[in-house]
Design a protein that fits this description.
The protein is of the alpha+beta class. It folds into 2 domains: 51 residues, no CATH class; 61 residues, Arc Repressor Mutant, subunit A (Orthogonal Bundle). Helix content is 50%, strand content 20%. A hairpin with a 6-residue loop joins strand 3 and strand 4. Helix 1 runs antiparallel to helix 2. The N terminus is likely disordered.
């Protein structure tokens, strides 16, 4: 999409600045796997619409939490809540379900510990 936008606009410094902005937005949105976006052409500019996906959120979030834990076993509950744009209590409930089902285990303290994903 970014290439299309840049191909359709003259290569002025302003167009290049916006192009880099689109790339930064797209890269930043990777940190929010529960959200999606859409670019729209409007008269005189561009509109970006952000969506929060709400269907089957808990199951999807649990799968995404496990993927994040595989990459970063020391991530905190607060950081997960920020990534998913949910309340800390929501992540605590999700983690409690994962712990009770034997999928994950917390090793050490909340501050200096890490998450262990159990093999099944």
């Amino acid at each position: 999409m970014v290439k299309k936008i840049l191909a359709l606009t003259p290569l002025t410094p302003l167009a290049l600045k916006y192009g880099a902005g689109f790339i930064r937005i797209k890269n930043e949105l990777k940190n929010y796997p529960n959200n999606s976006y859409e670019f729209r052409d409007i008269a005189g500019g561009m509109q970006i619409i952000f969506y929060k996906n709400l269907h089957n959120v808990t199951d999807n979030r649990s799968v995404m939490i496990l993927e994040i834990l595989k990459k970063n076993s020391t991530i905190t509950i607060t950081e997960l809540a920020f990534k998913f744009d949910v309340n800390v209590r929501t992540i605590l409930r999700d983690m409690e379900k994962l712990k009770n089902s034997g999928v994950v285990k917390r090793i050490g303290t909340a501050k200096s510990g890490y998450w262990k994903i159990n093999k099944k």
